[in-house]
Write a structure and sequence with these properties.
mainly alpha
Amino acid sequence: MNLRRKSLAELYIERDALQAEMADHAARLAGRQASAEQFAPALMPQAERLVAIRAQILRRTPARELMARYRLLEKQAGETSARTAAEQRTLDTELLDLKLHFANPRRRPLTLKTFLVLAAVVAAMLYLPKLIVALLP
């Protein structure tokens, strides 16, 4: 059950199976006409496991693929098409997950602008002290 040892494909399969299991469990609870207070505690262990799997998928997927997926989802969200409420909710959830993932500056892919600034700082650190010492009388 260790998520760190599983491949990305295995994580996707486990995520899909867990989502289906949660949907079945929720349907059974709804069929028994369970109260709203019973739904959260009953589904919480599965929901926590699902969140852990999704986080591991985000960590394992290359940043370029995630960024491409993020741009695609933004484009799809901007389009006005006939989607069911479940499809729209899934789209919004995945888009929010990716937004939150890239909100952390350490997870954003290195852009050309950032690379150039970083290269300029390193060059200044290497050559500026020697230049200052050379200009001193």
